[in-house]
Amino acid sequence: MTNTPSADEQSSRCYAIVPAAGIGKRMGADRPKQYLELDGKTVIEHTLDRLRNFSPIEQVVVVLAPGDPYQAAIPGLQEPDVIRCDGGEERCHSVFNGLQRLHKHARDRDWILVHDVARPCIRRQDLQRLWDCLQSHEVGGLLGVPVRDTMKRTNVSGDIVATVDREQLWHAYTPQMFRYGLLRQALAYVLERDELVTDEAAAIEAFGYHPRMIEGASDNIKITRPEDLTLAEFYLARQQVAQ
């Protein structure tokens, strides 16, 4: 029997938050990685295009570094369905700022989809899978891929101290999608305790809930090093051929 979403679930709106206030030190570039060129456009333009073309998303909040000098040259940041706001010291502060910016728009049961600006290869099929799988979920969840390699734990000197069982271990990706009210409370909870969580799921977990893990495509890579730009360009070209 197929579960039909309730009227309340069907009326839940969706907003995206894109934390883009980082400077990407590991890229060693003359500007933040989101403004580097990738297949004829900047990384941030690719990411915004993917999100803005996904119909459930009503508006996208892009969280930028205060005084960001590059944003004015990005056409996608000037669109009426894009809201800009200032970021904070860490990613979790930036996402919380984005949630605060939405407080006049979003209701507690609306969905918030948080996606890394440096993941421009997110597939529409994965966005749809995340959306479909979570419609009747009270908490939310995230995309990821199962760990396939042998996992090792080392000490501070780099010596291996244990081989870790990879069963039920996952690489956590984005998007991560949670109810607005719950995510806002969870982030407020960890920030009050000075816990600098590295993703939204960690805040939800610290607040006592269990997000759903949903398998996505492995080409949803995060650009962190110079060689990742070449790999992302390859994946974008392959995705275009497959369409």
Defining key terms:
seven-stranded mixed β-sheet, 7 helices, disordered N terminus, 243 residues, Spore Coat Polysaccharide Biosynthesis Protein SpsA, Chain A, alpha/beta, two-stranded antiparallel ribbon, 30% helix
Walkthrough of the structure:
A 7-stranded mixed beta sheet has the order 5-4-1-6-10-7-11, sandwiched between helices. A two-stranded antiparallel ribbon has the order 2-3. Strands 8-9 form a two-stranded antiparallel sheet. The radius of gyration is 18 Å and the shape is globular. Helix content is 30%, strand content 24%. It has one domain (12-242): Alpha-Beta Complex (Spore Coat Polysaccharide Biosynthesis Protein SpsA, Chain A), CATH 3.90.550. The chain has 7 helices and 11 strands. Mean pLDDT is 93; it is low at 1-7. It is α/β, with parallel strands linked by helices and 243 residues long. The protein has helices at residues 7-10, 43-52, 91-101, 124-134, 180-192, 200-206, 226-242, and strands spanning 14-20, 37-38, 41-42, 57-64, 82-86, 111-114, 140-146, 151-154, 160-164, 170-179, 212-215.
